[in-house]
Specification:
The chain has a two-stranded antiparallel sheet. The radius of gyration is 43 Å and the shape is extended. About 40% of the residues are buried. It is mainly alpha-helical. It contains 63 helices and two strands. A hairpin with a 5-residue loop joins strand 1 and strand 2 (about 1240-1245). Helices cover about 65% and strands about 0% of the residues.
């Protein structure tokens, strides 16, 4: 069967006969192998898919497959049938039944391959009907060709697909193929084995709904397991009993048995979840029996198979069987040994985790009963020397706590703790194990144990608070030890201390501060009296972590304590001898008061506590100015959090808070409902137990107390200096939002009345009766104060009252005084952004006022003015927004364009403002306007943003975005360089944001912008280079490549200008172009004069790639990963299909804006990772060192009492010191420690032993080679000689160390601090000349004979062997001949003298030989 004709004959292809009166079918075109099928009108058929996938491949197997496909199609068409999958299946099976088909293995393999593809499209009913005949044919092929891997690897999938569709009621018919596949699942050929295993898994998955067929199939798998899995043990016993002559055969048998077992274990990971329950249990027993062999591979794969069974959601294992499985895994000591393989332990941990999680879902009581054994087994793994084991154990323990510890377990533990039960509840044992993990013998694992303890504390909750006392005490000892070590300036493990503090923070959030302080009392009075230790470190934790607590507890416990501390501080302040005590008590009082805002975060008893302690807080606010900020923060948090709860419940209170910045896209209602805790996300979300009813009661109490609080807050605001009003202003604004509208209006009238008086007295210049003198030293300051105060009250005012505020602020926007204008625009910005109830009815009036005030606007008010403009434009862009009064008959779109045209020049100029916030606002407004105009008037033919790349085609209307771009483009012909530079920056921002839409304008725009590079104004050049940066980042590569000649020609004009970093910017652009378009494309357009720049960039890039590829250490790998991540981010930023975050740094003077930031991040991450790895390595080394002692158990001292609670404190400090020493040793060697002095500077001490020298000037008199160098020690040579390998090298080292001549100070050294005219040190210039002249002292002249007529060299009195030395001079490598000649001048003498001496010596030697 060598030709295609023979193949067709074997397939039964008959010539097509044309009936009378009929025409022969039209031949298919040469380029259409599918008989004229129209792929454009119909989906591709199976034959077309196969042809498309394999038709273009050159492998012989693919060509054979395509040939078989064509022959099968001819067979089907010859029968008058369409080439459907069913017809192709019939033709292939008919051909496979013929004996001659098996003559060629290649053809048979191709037919089986094609059949495996076709079977996936054949209906199951057809396969079920033809199962008997088809399975017989395929089984015969597999059995006959079992040695031919090419045939079997394709026939096995066919048999598996056919077997998956058999009639489940007729299992006997499937026994033969199923057993055949079972046998092949252990085949040594990987592809055959994987195909058979996958087929068995598919069959078992299909039998899940047919228990009658699943049982015998599972029994067959069980028999295979019973035959294979005991094989390694049996082979090992046989090898042990075998004589030495048969040892090699026995070892081969062991290897074969282990290989079969591993193959079966790999299959069982997919099979065992699908087995029937009666068969799964014996298989589990067989897997568990592999553990005593202590073979890492067998144990790990067996554990992974059991994990697959335990994790299967639809497995047939019962809750009892699952519990027994988990118990057996925990009881297998071989899995948990310290010497066990880390991969095996990790697999065992995952088995326990999956088993317990599923067991908790099936039977929570059974899971709780087995939980103590799991914890007592897993907790020691937290101290493993393998990081993977520690991490897996920690995650497992956390998941076990979350899944298995519930209210029932906590209740049983509480009952058992009271002695009500016979046996101890499981949870008590679990807590005991966690408490033990914080003992001294787990010191190295504390950082892993503390997160688990924190998880347990959170799970216990307030109901389980009595059970947490032991854990809290242990964690408290760790924190106390860390603080004590810090006070003693000993080494402290910061990561460990942070983990302990986070655990206590979790306890404060879940258990409540009452429970934590009951277990760990502050004991401030005892500490001050010397009777105990004060836990002052708890106060910052209370401030950071408390939320959802009871405010009454603070007033009942902490407030009296704070008052006592205040009284003691006041009493001690009068006595100079107690100054230290006064300072300490004052600090403690401040810290206690600082916890008030945390207790005001979602308090459970806010209404009751406010009624009870309002007078005390009021008195403290009035009499203690230093406490006002804290109380203001607490009041603000109470108001804003309760408002947010009611707003979420559909009961908004007040209006938008003027001191809460609105998020992009938020309207006034959203702003009014903001929680206001944007600076502290931990307090932003309300806890589950905080109900709207509680918030309603708190708001009612706050409203009732407003008559007391608001006047005090307002008077405090006026009396406070302007720079210190921040917290008071926020408190006033928040409280005004919750006040009754009538009360807020009353306070507002008082403030606005004073504002009007201030304006009148400022206009008249006279202070009449009743003049306002508070709020500032001048009328300007007073006016700004009352404007700001009136704005703070706006959150409680209705639209009618806001009209008065607007009228009071409007004249200020025309003032030339920056402070007044800034505050006036701030008021208008709030009214425009957050109060649509005022803004929309007066839209035209406000816009007109803004346009009138343009000539008088000052730079300080630009940002707030832009906020007003932004609100106006966005309001116009809304479909239901207010209309702007325009010309008669003008549409909304035309009015919008007119407004934008009148404001665009101002916006463009604002991008050049000195204030960064103003620039950011201007850029943001520009983009917002562009989006609004683009959505209001999209380009013709553009239906969505997905078609942005097709927008702006030739001959089509460009839309609103093009209109705005044209407006900005007009700035390029501005009269001043400032305007031109601003226009270029605005164009760059728009192009960056809308690159796909505006890409069509770049060919016309880029030449005009590049022409500006010939300008003399450097600010224009700077902006143009930034624009080119944007082009190189955002344009598609294909379009960017076409602009390469123009870009390179323009930017290379400034390639040699270093001022303003232009040279660095040009290099950055060239490098970016080379990376995106390719070095070859850039080189093709690079001028010859600048080709070296591109070569340097290419070399640097290749060097970085080479270093990245050669990274061998873990730190190098991490750095490479960070570099790849950085490159990925850069590539994603360059994709035009996505919008990325704008970075104004493209116009900055930094040389490498992007890479500098990411590089710093990479270095920080690498250093952090390296430090943590070093610390972990140091701890692991300390734990594994034989004969090591616990820190604190010093040799010859008393043994460390591990039962003493104070031992924990000692170990925290000692462990921190050792961790620091270990990290330093890992980084810089064991003999070097880096310390710091009192000012924090690094002190490096060299503790290596020095060479001992004799008293004769530090020289060894026995070493005559150094004798002639005496006197050079003053030049630093005495230090250099210790590292020199020879005498000849010593002077050059000394010359590099010192700046003086050998033996005497140089003239230049005397003027070491002088500066030359060019900015260089004159001393350094002199030192270079001395270094260049040093070689003459070692040219060999001093070894010449003194007598005339005498040749050769003499040793002299020093008895040193004659030598000549000339130091290396880098000028010798200089390409300038004059420089190289000057450096070679002295060297030529040395070489000439050496050659002359060698010639004389050779001549004398020849004469002696004669």
């Amino acid at each position: 069967m060598d030709t295609l004709g023979d193949l067709r004959a074997s397939l039964g292809v008959r010539p097509v006969r044309v009936s009378e009166g009929g025409a022969a079918p039209a031949p298919a075109p040469a380029d259409d192998p599918w008989g004229g099928l129209d792929a454009a009108r119909a989906p591709p058929s199976l034959a077309q898919e196969i042809q498309a996938k394999y038709g273009g491949k050159t492998q012989p197997e693919s060509k054979q497959l395509v040939a078989i496909l064509g022959a099968v199609q001819e067979v089907v068409r010859a029968q008058g049938l369409e080439a459907t999958p069913t017809a192709m299946f019939a033709a292939l099976m008919a051909s496979l039944e013929k004996p001659e088909t098996a003559a060629s293995s290649e053809v048979l393999a191709a037919m089986c391959h094609l059949l495996s593809i076709v079977l996936g499209r054949v209906p199951n009913a057809v396969l079920r009907a033809k199962f008997g005949a088809g399975s017989a044919v395929l089984c015969g092929i597999v059995e006959a060709k079992q040695a031919d891997a090419g045939v079997v690897k394709h026939a096995v999938p066919c048999l598996g697909q056919l077997l998956a569709a058999f009639n489940h009621a007729d299992w006997p018919s499937a026994v033969r193929p199923f057993n055949l596949l079972l046998g092949l699942s252990l085949d040594g050929r990987a592809k055959v084995r994987r195909s058979a295993q996958s087929a068995i898994a598919d069959v078992l998955a299909g039998l899940q709904a047919s228990p009658g067929a699943l049982a015998p199939a599972s029994e067959a798998v069980l028999k295979l397991c019973q035959r294979v899995l005991p094989g390694p043990e049996a082979a090992a016993h046989a090898a042990a009993a075998a004589p030495s002559k048969k040892r090699s055969a026995a070892e081969e048998a062991i290897a074969a048995a282990v290989a079969d077992a591993l193959h079966l274990l790999g299959a069982l990971k997919a099979w065992i979840p699908l087995l029937a329950g009666p068969a799964a249990a014996p298989v589990c027993d067989l897997l568990l029996k592999l553990y005593p062999l202590r073979q890492p591979l067998l144990s790990r794969h067996a554990t992974e198979a059991l994990t697959a069974l335990a994790a299967a959601p639809g497995g047939h294992l019962t809750a009892r069987g699952l519990g027994e499985l988990v118990g057996a895994a925990l009881a297998a000591e071989q899995l948990w040994e310290r010497r066990a393989d880390s991969g095996t332990i990790v697999a065992a941990v995952r088995l326990v985790e999956e088993g317990f999680c599923r067991l908790a879902a099936l039977d929570s009581a059974a899971a709780a009963q087995r939980l103590p054994r799991a914890f007592h087994t897993l907790v020691p793994q937290l101290a493993s020397e393998h990081e993977a084991v520690r991490y897996a154990a920690g995650c497992c323990l956390k998941n076990l706590i979350n899944e298995c510890v519930g209210e029932a377990a906590v209740g049983a533990a509480l009952a058992g703790a009271c002695g009500g039960g016979k046996a101890a509840p499981p949870l008590l044992s679990v807590l005991a194990s966690l408490e033990g993990s914080l003992g001294a013998h787990y010191q190295e694992a504390w950082d892993s144990c503390l997160p688990v303890c924190a998880e347990m504390l959170e799970k216990l909750g307030a109901g389980g608070a009595p059970l947490a006392a032991g854990l809290l005490e242990r964690i408290g000892e760790l924190c106390s030890g860390g603080e004590q070590a810090a006070e003693q300036e000993a080494g402290v493990d910061d990561a460990l201390l942070l983990a302990a503090q986070n655990a206590l923070g979790a306890a404060m959030r879940s258990l409540g501060p009452e429970t934590v302080l009951a277990a760990l009392p502050l004991d401030l009075a005892e500490g001050l009296a010397g009777r105990g230790e004060a836990r002052t470190w708890l106060l910052p934790l209370l401030r950071m972590h408390v939320r959802g607590a009871r405010l009454g507890y603070w007033g009942r416990v902490l407030l009296p304590l704070a008052r006592d501390m205040g009284v003691r501080a006041a009493a001690a302040a009068s006595d100079p001898a107690r100054a230290r005590e006064a300072q300490v008590c004052g600090a403690l009082e401040a810290q206690l008061w600082a916890t008030l805002p945390s207790f005001c975060s979602w308090p459970q008893d806010a209404a009751e506590a406010l009624r009870q302690y309002a007078k005390l807080l009021f008195a403290a606010f009035e009499k203690r100015p230093e406490l006002r900020v804290t109380i203001c923060h607490a009041l603000r948090r109470l108001c804003q959090q309760n408002r947010s709860v009611l707003t979420a419940a559909g009961e908004p209170v007040g209006w938008a808070d003027p001191c809460v910045a609105p998020a992009d896209g938020d309207d006034g209602a959203a702003v009014g409902g903001a929680s206001g805790d944007e600076q502290d996300p931990a307090h932003a979300e309300a806890p589950d137990g905080y109900t709207p009813e509680m918030a309603r009661e708190a708001i009612a109490v706050l409203r009732g107390q407003a008559k007391n609080w608001m006047p005090l807050l307002l008077s405090t605001y006026i009396a406070t200096p302007a720079v210190q009003r921040g917290q008071v202003e926020r408190a006033v604004a928040a409280y005004a939002c919750v006040c009754e509208p009538a009360a807020a209006a009353q306070f507002f009238r008082a403030a606005i009345t004073k504002l009007i008086k201030v304006q009148q007295q400022a206009a008249s210049g006279e202070l009449g009766p009743g003049a306002v003198l508070d709020g500032g030293d001048t009328d300007t300051e007073r006016r700004a104060t009352y404007l700001e105060l009136s704005l703070s009250l706006a959150g409680g005012l209705d639209a009618a009252a806001l009209d008065t505020l607007y009228k009071a602020a409007r004249p200020g926007i025309h003032e030339r005084e920056p402070a007044v204008q800034k505050k006036s625009y701030k008021v208008l910005a709030y009214l425009c952004e957050a109060r649509p109830d005022f803004f929309e009815p007066r839209f035209a009036e406000v816009v007109a006022a803004l346009q009138e005030a343009l000539p008088s606007s000052v730079s300080a008010a630009k940002r707030n003015r832009l906020r007003c403009l932004k609100a106006a434009v966005l309001a116009m862009a809304r479909p239901d927004g207010p209309r702007l009064e325009g010309a008669e008959g003008a549409s909304r779109e035309e009015a919008t364009k007119q407004m934008v045209a009148s404001l665009v020049s101002e916006i463009i100029l604002c991008v050049k403002e000195r204030n960064k916030a103003t620039r950011a606002t201007a850029f943001d407004l520009l983009v917002q306007i562009a989006h609004a105009m683009h959505e209001a008037e999209p380009p013709a033919g553009a239906g969505s943003d997905d078609n942005m790349e097709e927008e702006g085609g030739a001959g089509q209307p460009r839309g609103g975005l093009h209109t705005l771009f044209t407006m900005v483009l007009g700035g390029l012909v501005g009269a001043t360089p400032h305007m031109i530079s601003a226009a270029v920056m605005a164009l760059a921002r728009l192009l960056y944001e809308f690159a796909p839409v505006l890409a069509g304008l770049v060919p016309d725009l880029l030449p005009a912008v590049l022409l500006l590079l010939r300008s003399k104004a450097r600010e224009v050049i700077k902006s143009v280079l930034g624009f080119v940066k944007v082009v190189s980042l955002r344009l598609p590569v294909d379009e960017l490549t076409t602009f390469l000649p123009q870009i390179l020609e323009g930017i290379l004009l400034w390639a040699e200008d270093s001022k303003n970093k232009f040279r660095a910017k040009v290099r950055w652009i060239v490098e970016k172009l080379a990376k995106r378009c390719g070095f070859e494309a850039v080189a093709a357009h690079m001028p010859e004069a600048h080709s070296k720049l591109l070569s340097h960039i290419r070399k640097e890039n290749n060097r970085r790639e080479r270093r990245r590829s050669e990274a061998g250490s873990q730190m190098d790998v991490d750095e490479a990963e960070e570099t790849r991540s950085r490159r990925s981010r850069a590539d994603s930023a360059a994709r035009t299909a996505r919008r990325s975050e704008w970075d104004e740094a493209v116009f900055s003077d930094s040389e490498d804006e992007g890479t500098a930031r990411t590089g710093r991040t990479a270095r920080t991450r690498g250093s952090e990772g390296g430090r943590s790895r070093a610390a972990r390595s140091a701890r692991a080394a300390g734990a594994a060192a034989p004969g090591g002692r616990l820190p604190g158990a010093s040799a010859g001292g008393d043994p460390l009492d591990l039962l003493d609670s104070r031992a924990t404190r000692q170990l925290v400090g000692a462990g921190g010191a050792r961790a620091r020493r270990g990290a330093a040793g890992a980084a810089a060697g064991d003999d070097i420690q880096f310390d710091t002095d009192a000012s924090g500077r690094l002190v490096i001490k060299d503790d290596k032993k020095k060479r001992k020298r004799a008293a004769d000037d530090g020289w060894d008199s026995d070493d005559s080679d150094f004798e002639d160098l005496k006197g050079f020690e003053r030049s630093g040579l005495s230090l250099a000689l210790r590292g020199a390998k020879s005498v000849a090298l010593a002077p050059s080292i000394a010359a590099s160390l010192g700046g003086r001549s050998l033996g005497a100070k140089s003239a230049g050294a005397a003027s070491r601090g002088a500066r030359s005219a060019g900015g260089r040190s004159a001393a350094s210039h002199g030192e270079r000349s001395v270094r260049n002249a040093k070689g003459s002292q070692h040219s060999g002249d001093r070894f010449k004979a003194k007598k005339k007529g005498t040749g050769g060299d003499v040793k002299g009195s020093a008895k040193v062997e004659p030598y000549a030395y000339w130091p290396l001079d880098r000028r010798l490598m200089n390409r300038r001949q004059q420089k190289a000649k000057g450096a070679q001048k002295g060297l030529d003498k040395v070489v000439a003298a050496a050659k002359e001496g060698a010639a004389r010596g050779s001549k004398a030697k020849r004469q002696r030989q004669r």
